[in-house]
Amino acid sequence: MNRIASTFATLEAQNRKALIPFITAGDPEPTLTVPLMHEMVKAGADIIELGVPFSDPMADGPTIQRSSERALKHHVGLNDVFAMVSDFRQTDAVTPVVLMGYANPIEAMGYENFAVKAKECDIDGVLTVDYPPEECEAWVTQLNKYNIDAIFLLSPTTPENRMQQVAKFAQGYIYYVSLKGVTGASHLDLNEVANMLARLRAHISIPIGVGFGIRDGATAKAVSVLADAVVVGSRIIDEIEKSAKTELLVNVGNLLKSLRCAIDKK
Q: What share of the chain is helix, strand, coil (3-state, %, to 5)?
């Protein structure tokens, strides 16, 4: 059992839900990424999604786009992200790390080379926004070779046949995008989320995390009642943007603690 499956099994035994924060590697500067990862684990994160900076992040709203721009100003690329994860693993061999990003940097590196490097630094999963399930069998096979989970996005507009295709390949967990549009959007309709999760579970047996539109403890708690995991990205990036560097770790930690407490509240 890999780290992601083990984490969800432990949480299920405790009747708890996963908190999955997202940050962009290298934002606001490369030296802060690993300390941020450790701080989030200390504050209650169960799995970390680490964004790979990209110049055209089409699924991301302005907040996460800006985080990529800040990281790219420091010339942070895939090899730098691998180095950050290796550094994190020096003192944390338990917390799953999922890379989240776009196909272009992977295509440039090559499937085999990418998978080897991801395995060497102990990455647990990869979520590639723009690899459709219809065209990703070779990609998933390569990840499987190195025991790395291929994680997929599904959305409110996903048709039944796409759900079935994703169910064939998906591992670790499904990231359900709860809103139409880009990251950082609002107006989360919990009834619509509940209805869609019921449809997804008719096809999918692995855990389902819900992200997009989760900005406070009350929403995180409401989503945790419906889903297996709560994914929070733009709200954390907001905190990074507005925090002085000397206060950044404490502020992000306090935000994660508040979300963790809300999710765990009975």
A: 50, 15, 35
Tokens 């708890």 sit on residue: 16
pLDDT band at 27 (very low <50, low <70, confident <90, very high): very high
Q: For the chain, what is the total number of helices (H) and then of strands (E)?
A: 12, 8
Contact by Cβ (8 Å): 143, 115: yes
What three-state secondary structure class fits 127? strand
Element (H, E) at 99: strand 97-101
pTM: 0.94
Answer for the pair 202, 246: CB distance below 8 angstroms, yes or no. Answer: no
Whether residue 127 contacts residue 100, with contact meaning beta carbons closer than 8 Å, is answered with yes
Which tokens go with 227? 């889903």
- Residue partners of 104: CB distance under 8 A and separation at least 6: 54
**Residues designated catalytic:** 49, 60
Helix axes 111-120, 137-145, angle to 10 degrees: 30
Classify residue 40 by its DSSP letter: H
Q: Any idea which residue has 């065209």 for tokens?
A: 135
- The Cα–Cα gap between 87 and 240 comes to 21
Locus of tokens 């889903």: 227
CA distances from 117 to 83, 114, 124, 239 (A): 10, 5, 12, 31
pLDDT tens per residue, range 210-222:
998 898 999 999 9
Domains of the chain: 3-264 (3.20.20.70)
